[in-house]
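Repro:
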Amino acid sequence: MAYSVTNNQLIEPIEQELISEILNDQAVMEEAILKLEPRDFVNKHMAVVFNIIAKLHSDAKTVSEHTILNYISAHTEMQFDDYEMIVKTLANKFVSTTDFQDHIDLIKNASIKRQLNDFASEIINTDMDITKFNELLFDFQNRMAVITSAKRSNKIASIASIAQDYSRDLQRVMSHDEEVTGTPTGFGLIDAKTNGFQQGDLIILAARPGVGKTALALNFLVNAAKDCKERAEKVPNNEIVLMFSLEMSSKELCNRMVSSWSMVELSSSKRSKLGNIDYQSVNSAIDAIAELPIYIDDDSSLTIMDVQSKIKQIAMEHKIKLVIIDYLGLLKGPTIHNNNYNRQVEVAMFSRTLKQIARLNEIPILVLAQLNRNMEQRSKKADIAKPMLSDLRDSGAIEQDADIVTFLSKVVPEELEGEENNQKESATIQVEYNIAKNRKGPTGSINLDFIRTISRFEEKRFAPLKGINETKGYN
């Protein structure tokens, strides 16, 4: 049955029909309680009756005409509006119907429409203080998101249906010989522990300055983009990867990607002295990278509101497989700093918001972060000090909200101990990628070689490193 909801008078009879159906059919009641709230009813009496039904249900009590009447009689304030007669009338007017799903949807849609109308009126009547405009805009965005996502989906499922879905997923993975279910990083040892970066996950990559976290993030970005492109060549997928860079310009990032891909050093002093072979390699790398589905936003004044808004806009047109934010310490909040400003509270808000963005949009978000100096104070040899979760700068909330927390730190092999200074000056340094927290898999460390001159990471072999071509990395 099709309805056109134009006003409250039209929706009220539908609300009465639904309450009547709830009083006579357990299945209707379960579905309605899952998807509706008392405030969704425009009729005050229907809202009160539905609230009683929901309360009895939450208290694990039987919901029936009899139990509802008992509840009403125990609350004398409700007897003035003759709720007993209302409940009896609705219980007796029941006519079997298959339209209850339509009734639920129409009531919810009408409720959302009323909330949008009220919200629009509030915006019109709000005195926009330009000194607090960003804060107001952020509040409006969040409230709008709450309203538009108000429809509840059926999240409750039996273990039988869950197991059936899991079996189908397992068969799909096995039939396609897929080793990584998430967005691949391009590093086999990392993917083996994480199964790729999973949809809805917030991943933290933290390190002290100069260890290569931006370079590694770019390696992840390019590898994920390559995977998107390779699969799009088989089946069009409209997949992209996205990076918000608050520290480096898009041209600087492109320079690093080209250098890493071509394996040619492209520092400012080297670019003007390229030989013919290196120049050809660089041009080939530029052409290859230009074909990758990579998008970069290098706005250095980016706020958490901007990130939220831009991801939503892009997600309307593309399937985002990975978002990278470089880095958390430069991200700005909506509030104007004052005497009560607390950076830890602000960073905690950032981490919660980013986790919500990841979950709502079903995308992995990798956030780069700084470590405080505690790790350096724990050891006389700063290069081999091990980062810990407590070293995350500005907020313990990052550790709590993140699904995966990883650290980068320089290491000095036993045979090189006492030669830390040589390690500092070397073109290639050995780095430990430590997965310190992993909600969905194992933790542990992986050794990587960071070739600083070309911003490239490679997995270490068991044999000593002899040449770039003998190691495994991305092309």
